[in-house]
């Protein structure tokens, strides 16, 4: 357990977390944390001791070159940083980690202890999975929550998945068992275009984070990158008749399953985001 001394006093902090690896198809969820760290100028807060949770023959350290011939070793671990977004009357703790190789229960206990120490009561877990979703349609976001009211407040489609899980599912359960409100948001990444990055899925997760925080989140170049990604996949699919036919089949299946009320909820959510952004732009003038 790391020593938690000299930490700043936080204002009603919320934790947003993502892990590289099994939980991170297309690097969509870790991409959210990287984006927010950059946009909100997050400052390093805590790093867990990697000796306790990682097998360095499986998750190897990285050597980096500095000035001249100097070298440094970057050890794989889980790091927390602090952001103070403008317009949000609370602090945000961003967690970016690598799924641990061992001692998951101890890993979760340590993060629960850190959350309690920092005064965190709400945690947002992010993940991405491979699915048979067409790349031409909006990215489906499903999830689960320890608080039904929280899920309803953002019109989250709740998953009833049963089966193998990753550290995102285990840590969400640990947060809930410790009395913290925890919600998970999962983006569906097309399995036929799984290679990272996937800016469209990252953008979809960011918009749902925006719904939870109830403030506009800076999108940077993600909107343009998302369009470019989709256009690139369109071009690749058009060069292979079998892939193009498969995408068309997925589109038809998706459109047939789309419920009118679900589409209405999506339109309402997008309108609420528009109003938040308009209010923020007006306030900046």
What brief labels describe this structure?
single chain; 285 residues; alpha/beta; Rossmann fold; 2 domains; eight-stranded mixed β-sheet; two-stranded antiparallel sheet; 8 helices; globular; proteasome
Describe the structure.
The structure is a single chain. The chain is α/β, with parallel strands linked by helices and 285 residues long. It folds into two domains: 14-239, 3-Layer(aba) Sandwich (Rossmann fold); 244-282, no CATH class. The chain is 41% helix and 21% strand. The protein has eight helices and ten strands. The strands form two sheets. An eight-stranded mixed β-sheet has the order 2-5-6-1-7-10-8-9, with helices on both faces. Strands 3-4 form a two-stranded antiparallel ribbon. Strand 5 and strand 6 form a beta hairpin. The chain is globular, with a radius of gyration of 20 Å. The mean pLDDT is 89.
Short description:
The strands form 2 sheets. Strands 2-5-6-1-7-10-8-9 form an 8-stranded mixed sheet, sandwiched between helices. It has helices spanning 28-39, 104-118, 148-153, 167-177, 199-213, 222-238, 241-257, 260-284, and strands spanning 14-20, 43-47, 62-65, 71-74, 79-83, 92-98, 122-131, 141-145, 157-158, 181-190. It has 2 domains: 14-239, 3-Layer(aba) Sandwich (Rossmann fold), CATH 3.40.50.10900; 244-282, no CATH class.
